[in-house]
Each structure stands twice: as C-alpha cells, then as structure tokens.
Amino acid sequence: MRRALAMLALCVAFPATAAVAPEVSVEALAREADAVVRGTVASARSRWAPDGRHIRTLVSLRRLSTWRGTPPADLVVEVPGGSVGDIAQAVSGAPSFETGEEVVVFLRAAGAGRWRVLGLALGKFRVEAGSAVPQLAGVRIDRAPLRSGERRVEAMPMEELERRVRAP
Amino acid sequence: MTPSPFMALAALLAAGTAQASAYERAPAGEGLCQYWPDPGTPKVRRVAYEVSDPGTAQACRSGGDPVLAIRNAFAGWAAAARPDESVPCTDMQLVFDGVIASTETGADGRNRIAIRRGPCSGSHSIVPAGAPCIAAGACADLYDCWDHDRFIALTTTTYRLSTGVILDADVEVNAGDGEGEEGFLLTCIDPPAPVCAEERRTGCIGMDLQNAISHEVGHFLGFAHSDSRGSTMYAKASRGETGKRVLSADAVEGMCDVYPRGGAVTTCGTRPQGCSTIGAPDSWLGLAALALLLRRRARQETTTPA
pLDDT by residue (tens digit) across B227-260? Predict the structure, then answer.
C-alpha cells in the first residue's frame, strides 16, 4: 500500500517549466562527463552572477564515492537559477538540490575549478531507497534511438546505474 | 462487488487522463503560480518581446523567415479564442518590439528570444580558446552561444517569490547545423514537406521553429506542461512536428482563464490546490478517497483470518 500511495504522491507532484532535450542514454552521458560522483548535498546557496542579470546556485557536495573521473575532494557545483531575497529565477530543465539529499551527478568541468551538471536535469539522479531517480518533470524529451544495449535516463536500481556509468 | 484498490487506482488514473486536457501553470513557490501582472494605467494588458538578431541567421536553414515564425508563435497565444466565439477571450497583447543587436538575456526587464549560434564549449565551441568568459561561465550572452549542453530550447523566467509576478522572460534556442553537440537544425518552412534527414537538409522540416517557440511561449506566459498528447504544452515533440503551431484547446482555456478579456489576472495564490487548475480539487478528493480505500483494504487484509 505504501508503494501505491507513493506512486500517487508522484502523480500529483507540481509541474515545472520545461526545456527540450533529445533522448540520451546513461552511457552516453557518462562518456561525455568529466566526472560522475555519488554524494550528499551539504549546502546550496544562490547569488547573482557578476552580470547582475542571472542567478546561480552553488551546491556543495559531500562526496561518498567517485564513479568516473578525478574530481577534487571539495566539490562545488554551479547550477543556473535559484532565488535571492524575493527574486527567483527558474531556468527550465535545470536540476534542483536540497540540503541533505543524496544524489548521483554527472559533471562537466567548466574551468577555473567550476563544475556544472552535464545535461541539466538529465545529469542528476536522486537516491531513493536503493534506486536512482532522475527528476525530469521540467524536461521535454524528444524521442530518439539509443545505441544497442544502452539505457535511457530514467529511474533504475543504484547498482545498475553504477555499472552503466563505470562501463567503458 | 468490493472495489479493489487497483480498480480505484485505474479509475483515478482515468479521471486524471480526462483532466489531462486541462492546462497547468508553472509554480512560483508555496501555493503560488507565475503570471504577468495586471496593467496599471492605461489599462492595456501588454507584454513586449524582442528578437535577438545575431543568431537568427542560424534558424530557417531550410527556407523561411525566422522572425515571422517567432511572431506567429506569439500571435497564436494572443489570438486565443474559444471555438464558438469570434473574438479572442484574452486581451493579452504580446507585442513584437523589434529585432535588436543585443544578445543579452536574464533579469533586465527586456524579454528576448535568442537564437544561439553554436555551443559555448566542447569541440564545436564558437568561443575562442582562452576567452576570459569561459572561467566566469558568462560566454552565452557575450558570444551568443548555447550554454546548456544538449538541450534544444529553454525558457528562463524571473519572478517575485512573494507573489508569482513575472518580471522577465527569455527564450533561448540551440541553433546549429548538426544534431546534439553542434546544435540543432531548425527549420521554418510550412507543411506539407518531408522530414529532414541526414541526406536531406533543405526543403524539409527539421525542428520547426514556430512549433518550438509556440511551446516555449506557453512557459513565457507562466504555463507548465500538459499530459494531453494534443496540447501545445505536451512534453514531447519530434522532428518534423508542426502541430503545436496551432494553439490547442487547453492552451486557449488557459489564456481565457488566466488573462481574461476585461477581467483581472487569475493569480491562483489563494487556491488551496496551488498551481493545478481545472479539475484539481476532484483530483485531491479522488486521492483522499483512494487513500481511505487502501487503508480500509489493508486493515481488512491484516484482520481477516486465513
């Protein structure tokens, strides 16, 4: 019954604005990523970018394990959007993070020690009871064929996600 | 016959499908939705937008006028009219404010449609190696490049958390000459025409610009995805699709309800169901009823002797 109620809770989750992306596999994202890590969100704080027009959120990750690449121990990931005071900026398709949340993130090195989530919401999975679940409500997927044997970005067991990420 | 939880779940899902033709609004915070505010004086409900010029040459590679495609997409929403009515149900004016040289986006009070010319990073980057903006993560506006990986289009809205009032909205489109890292082949020609393919890149429909912008304008106005396949705000599209050029019935209802002709904007801030719209209370009642049913069934299962 708990499972049924959990499903229903998902059904009534609020929608978000959306971005358009073509279908992508976990393996393709992993090949493109500079690092893939599993960790917990230590903090998330938003600030205005130097241009004064864009809000960025800096997410500090406490790394639990590294599945790919050699990211630094103290990992800060920059995400577009966020809120400062009474002003909020929603970038459709951008991932959101909550303090204490356990995640797997596909990262791209953006220079000068900056890291970004590869593929916006496609590159972030929330860890929930042994499963890895992407939050794709804000993403409009344009269906496209994937390579044989590869799996699209969707909910799957953690072990499977790790195996697919670590595969060459 | 005792109703099973699965029957109830099926009924609820069926109800959800029936309600799926309803429009949805983008959330702005606790129980709030995003919306453009009512006008002051003069009382003309008006939101202006500009088209960023440098990137428009990247669109419509297959022929056609990109600015016209964008204007048509906005005009479709402003002309929302119910089937039995001859005049639009909304007085929202979406005003084309011209083609400008600036490629800047973000919270500057200017609503822009920016067709980005190519990627900001990667092997196909149009940003010169070593450009200072790379370290600052600020190349998109400077080089009119796409800084959102493999996405095709997205909308950024800036709004007040306390009210949901939209202050600024920008749409960016990832134009290029490829599929993925190099951007996407945007086209503007009218149907009927064959779907573009590797060997056919002219006289065909790829990612139809008006189709894509029509969907993004919905987000620009504060609407979210619909589960209805025929909706302008349906969350999936495919190459060659042009159906979203014509505003769907649920999108029309959204405009009629949220920005009604002669009436006040519907903020939805006082509605207990938050940003869900038509049929939402029934959804919650259905959910509550099903929860009770499941709970009762669980009790029966645990107390019934074998």
Answer: 787 899 887 777 788 888 999 999 999 999 999 9
What pLDDT digit, counting tens, does each position of A108-138 carry?
988 778 899 998 889 999 999 999 999 886 6
pLDDT digits (tens, 9 = 90+) for B74-87: 999 999 999 999 99
Q: DSSP letter at A76?
A: E
Q: Taking CA B178 as the corner, what is the angle to CA B174 and CA B184, rounded to the nearest 5 degrees?
A: 25
Q: Is B225 on the interface with A (CB under 8 A)?
A: yes
What is the least distance, in Å, from the CA of A135 to any CA of chain B?
14
Cα gap A86→A143, rounded to integer Å: 37
Read off the pTM: 0.81
Q: 3-state class of B39 per DSSP? A: coil
Q: Terminus-to-terminus CA distance in chain B, angstroms? A: 20
The shortest CB-CB distance from B152 to any of A20, A50, A87 is to A20
Secondary structure of chain B: what % helix, strand, coil (to 5)?
A: 30, 20, 50
State percent of chain B over pLDDT 90: 44
**Which residue shows structure tokens 């394990």?**
A65
- pLDDT tens-digit series, residues A41-64: 999 999 999 999 999 999 999 999
Q: How many angstroms separate the CA atoms of A24 and B213, rounded?
A: 22
Candidates A4, A19, A54; nearest CB to B106: A54
Domain ranges of chain B: 1-22+279-306, 24-273
Q: What is the DSSP letter of B72?
A: H
Domains of chain A: 15-166 (2.40.50.120)
Helix (H, G, I), strand (E, B) or coil at B56: helix
Judging by DSSP bridges, how do beta strands A74-80 and A114-117 pair with one another?
parallel
**Fold designation for B24-273:** Collagenase (Catalytic Domain) (3.40.390)
Mutation for B interface: A46, A53, A143, most B CBs within 10 A: A53
